[in-house]
Structure formats: structure tokens, C-alpha cells
């Protein structure tokens, strides 16, 4: 059995990690770490775990935890892991970080967009960007995996097939994205109170959202050139889900069949990518509670542009589900183990 420790087990992503791993045939959680609920029963924090998890919440002592487990998930705020990670820890245990601390390879870009000093930049180069569909073989060997952000996962997977195929102009990419409120985390914030969110939709982080450089960097690798995009996120009144609608100019007049073939070829072996039938637009409700990514693409014959669409559950493929998928690769498990979850409906 893979012995698992979770730091940040009482946040939304941490709770999803627990839910997935409780059904994982090859993993056992032995440490439920939480700064806010030390010594409190985990099932008192998440009552859906009553009679399922009897453990109490422990602290976030990473050094002690590293000596007891095979893998640590850190579902923590930006800057936490970077402030405490040491070589002695990575010599003992593999780490999957759900924050942004090791996603961006240029430390100056990270510090500019996140507004904090990176305390362990020596590990940035080693960290593997944990997008399984792109970096699968590197993930298998990694000690430190930077689990991608939710907006970035959906945006990259929605756009990357056409970049790899050389069918779109990289400089023309525009990403419009919408997220449910769980993406903001479990902490109390005025902007995510019921009365603020209900019956409302709004853009936020316009030109300044911190996932922008992450998307640009990863798309740049696919295109073999520096990419700058327009990325605008929106908050919508639902619990879960991300919907991305991306736009780009086609390099030449190609058929919709050629465009769809680029997706089919790119993702033909991917267990969690679902290319929808022609003309069917992705919807967040059809991926809720699952690790699936629903994609589709439409060519606008009138403008010569292409509209690329993707939907994920932000807490699953956008966070905990992808993290477990990474763990499965790192430990030689079936990649789908614990993740064959049919989307919830209604």
C-alpha cells in the first residue's frame, strides 16, 4: 500500500483527495494535516465522512510526516511549501504540490504575479509540471510534481492540440473562462458569500489573474515560441466546474474535419479526455464529480477563427483528481485507479 499524507486535508481540494483515496485500492491515508483543525475529528469537519474516516486532524509538520509516508499531497496556499521544502524531505518522500509554488519555471515571473518571494527556487527546475496528458513519462520519475491550476488545466487541454498541429496563430489566442465558487477555496471571503455570488456573474482578475503566466508558459512549450494571451476569468453562482471558451485565428483555411482530427490524434490514448460529437458544446454538469475533460471545437467560417471549448470539474481534474492521477503514474498504479467516477447528475 502507498502510505499517503495530506497537508491541507480540510480544504475543498483536500476533502476531494480524501474522498478519492478512500476508494483507492492501493493507497492508505495515514495523516490528515490541517492547521485550523488540529486534534479535531476529520468527520466533524466534513460530515460526509461520518463513519467513514475516524481519524483526527494532525498538524502540518512536514519533516515528521516525510518519515512516515511514501507521498505527501500539499493542498496549501501559495508560498507554504516553498517556505519549508528541503532536500532532506525529498530524499525521503515524493511530493505532489497543489499550489503554484513550482509550476512556473521563471522565478521572477512567479514572484511578480504572486507578490511573494520564492523561498526554495532551487527546486523549480526539478519540479515536473503535472499535466499527465503532456508530461506523463517525466511524472513517472519525479520526486516533486507541480499539480497544475484549475483554469490552466482546462485552458491548456482545450487549446494545445491545435498549437501542436500548427493550425492556429499563437498571438491571437483569447481565453474566456468561468468557474464555480469552490475555486476560491473554503476560507470565508466577502466576494464568495452567498448573497454576493447568487444571481450574479462577474469578471475578475482582468489582465492580472495569476494563472495567466502558467497558461502562457505551457502553451509556449507546445508552440516552441513565447506566447502572450488574453485571459479573463469569471465567477459564476455554482459550486463546481470550469468552462473555457477560447478563440484563435486559423493559420490557413482548413476544414472542420482536419481541426477535429488534430484533437482525435492528440488525445486518442487519453483515458480522461472526451471529444464530444460534432456540434455538441461542453457543459460543466456532465463532468461534475469526475476526472473527465469534455472538449469540442467549432470553426467560424465567417471570421476564419476557431472556437475551442472545454469543461472540467475544478476540484477533480482541476485539483485533486489530477493529483491522484499523478500519484498513480509516480507509483506505477493503473492511471485510472480511484478515478473511474461517473459524473454526478442531477
Layout of secondary structure:
Elements: E1 2-7, H1 12-21, E2 27-33, H2 42-45, H3 62-66, E3 71-74, H4 80-84, H5 87-90, E4 94-97, H6 107-114, E5 128-129, H7 132-141, E6 144-146, H8 150-164, E7 174-179, H9 194-197, E8 202-203, H10 212-223, E9 230-235, E10 242-249, H11 256-267, E11 273-275, E12 293-300, E13 305-312, H12 316-330
Parallel strand pairs: 1-2, 1-3, 3-4, 4-6, 5-6, 7-9, 11-12
Antiparallel strand pairs: 7-10, 8-9, 10-13, 12-13
Helix pairs in contact: 1-12, 7-12, 8-10
Structural class: alpha/beta
Q: Specify the helix fraction band.
A: 25-40%
Instruction: State the CATH architecture of the largest domain.
Output: 2-Layer Sandwich
Q: What fraction of residues sit in β-strands?
A: 15-25%
What CATH calls the topology of the largest domain is: Dihydrodipicolinate Reductase, domain 2
* Main beta-sheet annotation: 7 strands, mixed
Cα-to-Cα separation, first versus last residue = 35 Å
The SSE string, one letter per element, is EHEHHEHHEHEHEHEHEHEEHEEEH
Care to describe what's here?
With 346 residues, the chain is of the alpha/beta class. It folds into two domains: 2-126, 3-Layer(aba) Sandwich (Rossmann fold), CATH 3.40.50; 151-314, Dihydrodipicolinate Reductase, domain 2. The protein is 30% helix and 19% strand. The protein has a seven-stranded mixed β-sheet. Helix 1 packs across helix 12 (316-330), helix 7 runs parallel beside helix 12 (316-330) and helix 8 (150-164) packs parallel to helix 10 (212-223). The model has no long low-confidence stretch (mean pLDDT 97).
